[in-house]
Amino acid sequence: MTQTPVRTDLYARVQHFYAHQMQALDAGRFEDYAATFTPDGTFQHSPAAEPARTRAGIVAELVEFHKRFDGDPVQRRHWFNHIALVPRADGGIAATVYALVVTVRPGGKPEIAPSCVVHDVLEVGEDGVYTRSRRITHDQLG
Ligand code: SDN
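# SDN complex -> structure
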């Protein structure tokens, strides 16, 4: 098993980054979410779809995807856990993360759907952490 040590301050920075990034998404702040990607960042949230490219492309993709929730008082929350970091030869950091999307409507019970794995490449520098690429696989698709 690959277990390259990573510094605790790096690990904490990545956790902090993910908390802000995913709270932006769940609050519907798509511009803020897209701004957590590098300017040329890529984002593929469903296996069949082509990746969205650039921050503007990511915003457009999220606006389009969320049209299915128009008029639906749903709250979705993306919970990240088991953040596994592996430094890459190109200076990036590969992050493999479990993600559960919890869905709830007023008065209803929370449901978990879908259960995903996030495959990120992060860029970590003086000015912050950014997602260079994100690909999400869905457990129900095998
Ligand atoms: O940004 C993510 C996402 C995400 O954006 C997702 C979207 O719909 C828009 C980070 C980590 C995980 C995810 C997971 C999803 C799920 C996806 C499709 C769906 O909800 O059916």
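# post-check
The chain has a mean pLDDT of 95.
The pocket of SDN is lined by residues 25, 45-46, 65, 78, 99, 101, 114, 116, 118, 136 (CB under 6 Å).
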